[in-house]
Amino acid sequence: MCPPSQKDNTGTLKAAVEVLGLSTVVLLASTIGLAVKENNAAPASPAVPAADTVAAAPSATDFVALKENSIFLDYKDNVCAGAQLAVANKLCADLEVPTPQAGGNVTKGYVGGLDVGDLKPHTDSYFQGDMCPVNVHWHLGTEHYSYGQYDENGKGPHGTADRPEWANRGLATAGEKVRGGFHCHHYDEKDEKFTKPYDWKYCTNMEVGETYEVHWPHSSVGDCGTVNQYQTPFYDGVFCNLSMEQFVAIAVDPQNIASNVGVHGQVFTVVNDEQYFYPDMMRGMIIDKKRNMGIDIHYYTGSTTGTSRNNEMCSQYAPITWQVDRQCHMISASSFDKLCHDMLLQRDDMKDDLYPHGSRELVMDSLVANNAADADSLAAAAAAAAGAAPEEARNGNLRI
């Protein structure tokens, strides 16, 4: 059979294409017009969900409240509780061998008048002596004295301590207001950051504009690196792994004490200004070379401080090393409040250190050790020993 004949449909196909093309153009034009019309119309308001469907903002976790049920923070597991060795204060005049006292004058060039022989303070970093911080607490005003930084010419919301005649800050009596020490020179009543109240969440009895001297006791026999490291009272941390028998044995050589127990001291004026926020005041003195923090250090051997001692009643917790920053610095109120928050999260109950303690009166020259040192004197000594210039030692060309 022959195939069916092929009919020429070219004309019909062209016509269909033309009709389809015209329809497409009309549809496209309509779509563009509708889009332009919608874009020119006022935007529709977004749909508002029903009140019961609005998600509540997440609340901040109260970490302090979680401590109560934590298996890691059970106070009954605190191996340092009650470790303090009882060493009573004693009349300074009754001491057979006078023990050097703190806090003293730390002004550059000052040397105390109590001859302590070859006894030396620990002048390396405490961690290099296997010491760790075992507590942090602070005093209202300063116990130490640094002329031009924190002294009788300082200012605060309630003034400052007078220069002693010898000293006017005696022992506290029952019900007496906590006694303040010397003050820094930063306070300006016309500057809001020194006067604007702060909403304290964790610290108590604190005030913006005030000066506080912060102490970080360190010990080589603390429970370093464990959940028991930080303790209140600080004596529990200092003596955590030391018995009275061991203490008596090592105390035969006072250098053993000065080389194994030390305190960082740093002074701050509190401001309500978050530019001065520092998040970790728990671990010790703030060291920041750019801001001259923790750099100008006065080293000497002294004792524990506090208002139960004065120039007649001496502490027998001595001789311990003191490393005191001669400069005064500004720190935000929030930095202290964060510190108090961190203290509340320790295994031990540190609530008795969340407020400023009273300041001991400035120690008389005759009770201050004559072994003061600083970077310049250490560099000079190292240079003399090596036969080099002091400047070379200060610049790090000699090991000290």
Q: What's the SSE blueprint?
A:
Blueprint: H1 10-40, H2 63-66, E1 90-91, E2 132-133, E3 137-140, E4 150-151, E5 183-184, E6 211-219, H3 234-238, H4 244-250, H5 254-258, E7 261-271, E8 297-302, E9 313-314, E10 320-332, H6 333-344, H7 375-386, H8 390-394
Describe this structure in words.
- This protein has 400 residues and is α+β, with helices and mostly antiparallel strands.
- The protein is built from eight helices and ten strands.
- Strands 2, 3, 6, 7, 8 and 10 form a six-stranded mixed beta sheet that branches. The chain has a two-stranded antiparallel ribbon with strand order 1-9. The protein has a two-stranded antiparallel ribbon with strand order 4-5.
- The longest helix has 31 residues, at 10-40.
- The protein is globular, with a radius of gyration of 35 Å.
- Mean pLDDT is 85; it is low at 1-45, 167-175 and 395-400.
Helicity range:
10-25%
Mean pLDDT, nearest integer?
A: 85
Uncertain residue segments: 1-45, 167-175, 395-400
The first-to-last residue Cα distance is 116 Å
Tally of strands: 10
Q: State Rg.
A: 35 Å
Which structural class fits the helix and strand makeup? alpha+beta
Listing every helix as H and every strand as E from the N terminus to the C terminus, the arrangement reads: HHEEEEEEHHHEEEEHHH
Work out the helix count. Answer: 8
Binned strand content? 5-15%
Let me know the largest β-sheet: 6 strands, mixed
Outline, from the CA principal axes? globular
Features:
single chain, 400 residues, alpha+beta, 6-stranded mixed sheet, two-stranded antiparallel sheet, disordered N terminus
